[in-house]
Amino acid sequence: QVQLVESGGGLAQPGGSLRLSCAASGFMFSSHEMSWARQAPGKGLEWVSGISPVGRDTYYADSVKGRFTISRDNAKNTLYLQMNSLKPEDTALYFCRRGGVRLGIRVDYWGQGTQVTVSS
Question: Which of 15, 25, 27, 37 is 20 to 30 A from residue 72's alpha carbon, by CA?
Fold first, then answer.
């Protein structure tokens, strides 16, 4: 069955960096668009970034553009999100998702999430 398992979250200071990973299994990873979304405490789900199947096209929310980089390694069935210049407002539960490459595009599977906390 389809599984998406996120890792790499944790506590970071403002201005710091974290790299999230998402290990995918149970489907042909290289054939699917993938994305990251996040949910901050008390707020709704926010689309963060998406990537095409071979990684040629990437998309970002304005709130993270220039600070976050999405990438993928199809040989390792792994999706990444490099997060630099972190801000307290980046604190959220981050989800890896199959689909949803851009806002409004269908998502059919997502992981359990990994918590990112940005605080001094």
Answer: 15
What does residue 30 show for φ and ψ, rounded to 5 degrees? Answer: -70, -10
User: Is residue 104 over pLDDT 90?
Assistant: no
C-alpha 120/C-alpha 118 separation (Å) is 7
Residue of 14, 7, 39, 22 whose CA lies nearest to 109:
22
Helix (H, G, I), strand (E, B) or coil at 29: helix
Q: Give yes or no for residue 103 having a pLDDT over 90.
A: no
Residue in this structure with the two tokens 């990112």, named with its chain if needed = 116
Contact 51, 37 (CB under 8 A): no
Instruction: Measure the CA–CA gap between 67 and 78, rounded to whole angstroms.
Output: 20
**pLDDT by residue (tens digit) across 52-68?**
999 999 999 999 999 99
| Token digits of residue 104 | 């409004």
